[in-house]
Amino acid sequence: MRLLAFVSCRRILPVCVLLSLTVQAWATDTPMDRATLKGITEVQVVVEPIVPEIERHGLTHSQIQADLELRLKQSGINVVSSSPASLRVDIQLTRVMVFRVYAYSLKVAIHQPVRLDRAPRISHVSAPTWSVDDSGTIGTQRVRELRSRVTEIVNRFITAYREQNPMQ
């Protein structure tokens, strides 16, 4: 009986760990954060590098870059290759060895120049002023679906941007 209980615990524990990694989203998409978007006239899209193992599962840097640039242009946001404001996307995946899944962390953020009150002469400081974070687990065969999750979060950015810049 003790052996059966031990074996059951060994099977249940990994499942409990996976359930604790269910999708969670954190946002700094408050009215104050949205207000920092007012007056931005252009953005550059910066997608952090994606490791080759993940690209082999169908989620590529070039796809994400092209998707986002097209989506922003379609919504009327000027996309340029060099701008003080940048829409940054960072996708991190860690393989959970016991199962055929990845734990993922996804962050979409607007970085823009900021001024430090205590050191106003420092002019080259950039910081995130609006962001949405997401994390969870995803099967190895479904990694490419994170592409649509990135688009959903970028759509939240577009809504926030349009709220602050209705005439642009």
Question: What are the salient characteristics of this protein?
Answer:
168 residues; alpha/beta; Double Stranded RNA Binding Domain; six-stranded mixed β-sheet; disordered N terminus
Explain what the structure shows:
It is a single chain. This protein has a 6-stranded mixed beta sheet with strand order 1-6-5-4-2-3, covered by helices on one side. β4 and β5 (101-114) form a beta hairpin. It is built from 5 helices and 6 strands; from the N terminus they run αβαβααββββα. The chain starts with a helix and ends with a helix. It has helices at 2-20, 31-35, 52-55, 61-74, 146-164, and strands at residues 24-28, 42-47, 78-79, 86-96, 101-114, 125-139. The chain has a single domain (23-164), classed as Double Stranded RNA Binding Domain (2-Layer Sandwich), CATH 3.30.160. It is an alpha/beta fold and 168 residues long.
How do the helices and strands line up, and which of them pair or pack?
Blueprint: H1 2-20, E1 24-28, H2 31-35, E2 42-47, H3 52-55, H4 61-74, E3 78-79, E4 86-96, E5 101-114, E6 125-139, H5 146-164
Parallel strand pairs: 2-3, 2-4
Antiparallel strand pairs: 1-6, 4-5, 5-6
Helix pairs in contact: 4-5
